[in-house]
């Protein structure tokens, strides 16, 4: 008698702690955040994507994919119409209401919430497991981890800089120590002057920045271009950041999206902070 043993389908544990189990590797994936779209491509499953959200602009092929709304306002009906066998949700961005709706309809879901370098690598590996592209995902995750480890070693003994990270100018907004951007600053031997504030992205006032007197101000803005409002700090020549000529801009997509590209953003930021250290050293 020939006995056939059924092989179990792929599975992975998501950010909410649920074990996501599929009958077979996912073939039709909908990703509901730009960072998830990038991580699907990194995992080698970009050709499985059938739906994304607005601002899913990297890599280039993602621009051509059908959109089901935005990360903060997506259509359940549009997602279901894509006939997905896996939907990747962004826990804090998409909200859990949509998760319940998809689960009621029997649509498999994976919750993504990368808040650390390790989370990015884990997310890429999990997507690879669920899509059956484990080898590609492992290579991408390992390469990312290697770049982060190299930066950590390189800047372990660098002089620490006091830094203010400016997300936006009106209202004046920054990040606290729990945000991944703070982890990038730490990687580059910089200390977030507002690390101890409670909200993840707190609002602050100009007086608080002046009182903290950062040695460098890093700004992101909305796109690759340097925001004009970064130069508003030139009104305060007493600031060490102004004296150091240390008003720094890095492409926000390289720092504010929790994807493998954050290693490139960190590399660029670390290099710019090295320049700040050199200027500060000569001006002493």
From TrEMBL:
Q: Name the Pfam families on file.
A: Peripla_BP_2 (PF01497)
- InterPro entries per record: ABC_Transporter_SBP, ABC_transptr_periplasmic_BD, Vit_B12_bind_prot
Coiled-coil-forming residues are 134-161
What are the protein's UniProt keywords?
A: Coiled coil, Signal
Q: Name one GO biological process term.
A: cellular response to iron ion
Question: What residue stretches are annotated with the Fe/B12 periplasmic-binding domain?
Answer: 28-277
Q: Which domain of life is it from?
A: Bacteria
PROSITE patterns the UniProt entry points to: FE_B12_PBP (PS50983)
Question: Any idea what this protein is called?
Answer: Cobalamin-binding protein
* Biological classification of the source: Bacteria, Pseudomonadati, Pseudomonadota, Gammaproteobacteria, Cellvibrionales
């Amino acid at each position: 008698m020939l006995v056939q043993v059924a092989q179990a389908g792929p599975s992975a544990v998501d950010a909410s702690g649920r074990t996501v189990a599929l009958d077979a590797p996912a073939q039709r994936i909908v990703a509901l955040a730009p960072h998830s779209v990038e991580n699907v491509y990194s995992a080698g499953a970009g050709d499985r994507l059938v739906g994304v959200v607005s601002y899913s602009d990297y890599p280039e092929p993602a621009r051509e994919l059908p959109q089901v709304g935005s990360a903060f306002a997506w259509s359940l009906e549009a997602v279901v119409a894509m006939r997905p066998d896996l939907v990747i949700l962004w826990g804090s961005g998409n909200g859990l209401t949509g998760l319940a709706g998809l689960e009621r309809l029997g649509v498999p879901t994976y919750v993504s919430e990368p808040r650390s370098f390790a989370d990015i690598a884990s997310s890429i590996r999990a997507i690879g497991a669920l899509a059956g592209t484990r080898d590609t995902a492992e290579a991408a995750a390992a390469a990312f981890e290697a770049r982060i480890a190299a930066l950590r070693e390189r800047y372990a003994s660098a002089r620490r800089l006091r830094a203010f990270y400016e997300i936006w100018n009106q209202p004046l907004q920054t990040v606290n120590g729990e945000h991944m951007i703070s982890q990038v600053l730490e990687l580059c031997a910089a200390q977030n002057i507002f690390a101890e504030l409670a909200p993840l992205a707190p609002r602050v006032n100009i007086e608080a920045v002046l009182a903290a007197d950062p040695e460098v101000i890093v700004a992101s803005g909305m796109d690759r271009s340097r925001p004009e409002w970064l130069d508003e700090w030139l009104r305060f020549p007493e600031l060490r950041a102004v004296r150091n000529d240390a008003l720094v801009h890095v492409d926000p997509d390289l720092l504010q999206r929790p994807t493998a590209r954050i290693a490139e953003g960190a590399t660029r930021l670390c290099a710019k902070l090295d320049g700040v250290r050199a200027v500060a050293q000569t001006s002493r």
